[in-house]
Specification:
Blueprint (H helix, E strand, L loop, with lengths): L2 E8 L5 H14 L5 E8 L5 E3 L24 H11 L3 E4 L10 H8 L9 H8 L1 H10 L7 E5 H6 L1 H9 L5 E5 L9 E3 L2 H14 L2 E6 L4 E9 L4 E10 L6 H5 L4 E4 L6 H17 L4 E9 L5 E7 L9 H9 L3 H20 L7
Parallel strand pairs: 1-2, 1-4
Antiparallel strand pairs: 2-3, 5-8, 6-7, 6-8, 9-10, 9-12, 10-11, 12-13
The structure holds adenosine-5'-diphosphate and magnesium ion.
Amino acid sequence: MKKRIGLLYGGKSAEHEVSLSTAMAVIQALDFEKYEVHPIFITLDGEWLTGPQLTSPAENVEQLKFDSNHAPNNIKQFIATHNELSFDIVFPLLHGTNGEDGTVQGLLEVLNIPYVGNGVLASSAGMDKVVMKQLFEVAGLAQTPYTHFIRSEWQSQQEAILEACEKLQAPLFVKPANLGSSVGISRATNREELVAAIELALRYDRKIIVEQGVVGREIEIAVLGNDHPKTSVVGEIKPLTAFYDYDSKYKDNSTELIIPAQVSQHALAQIEEMALRAFKILDLSGLVRADFFVTADDEVLINEVNTLPGFTPVSMYPMLWQKTGLSYTDLIDELIRLAMERYDEKQKLQYNRG
Ligand SMILES: Nc1ncnc2c1ncn2[C@@H]1O[C@H](COP(=O)(O)OP(=O)(O)O)[C@@H](O)[C@H]1O
Ligand SMILES: [Mg+2]
């Protein structure tokens, strides 16, 4: 029997468009003999639109954006659809807030629907760069020094915050704590730029992290699994701009991906080991892409993990697996298998004290 799969994409997030490209690619790769595919489009306003079943791959992205006049238009309808169809599994293809951050995962948990990828805790811890870095610290993972604060602290003690930031070596990287795809991130080399960077980041989040800049290559590794995760070969991103910003990630193709990346045996072993340690401390499951800096002295620093990494066929995560010997279609099948494995394990838990 075909597995009934709900694809969740779009989202009330700055990464809405990225999610649509991912959905397009996943739909192209899904085996329609094996899966019954139901698209669920979340608009930028946060409306959930459950569209008609797809019987063949969508031809263009417009086809995936339903009009609320033609489709049921809120989360209750998603629940009603689930009650009617009973999804075997949901694949959240959402990046950023309201999707990669544990909220949607929580909804799916409450509805008791198996879903692909990381659970509630891992998703939310991985989304918040401050919580993530604090956990990295607990796990003893080397990383760049940083400081953090919230909006009201900035309003009441700006000078003290600026001084704390200036204890770090320039250039500084200023980031909203809860966002991805480089949205709201800037590089600052003096106080004026730092203030502007903080003001910009505060438009996207109430919590801000400021990091000491690292001079090094950006090396990434993919992890796949549940209790016994495996690592892929490593890849390098070479942005042609000052850093890997939103446009270089998604718009102007100005980033080169080199897979496998040439790194020393020492750095490679460190990256593999650190990625698995990060996987464990954040309680990750299914998939994660772990991102590192490797300095000229061959020092390895962890930058971040992405609990729902870019997932088009030319994105780093699927490419890393392809070069490791797992095709895009097989990777999707494996993620679905891992999701079922985690769900089945959870069903065995005892909920009474009996
Ligand atoms: N501390 C840092 N030192 C040097 N470059 C950085 C630093 N932090 C971020 N960058 C650059 O900015 C990019 C985006 O930052 P990152 O923390 O990975 O945010 P996102 O979650 O948006 O991917 C990185 O890929 C890197 O190019
Ligand atoms: Mg990143």
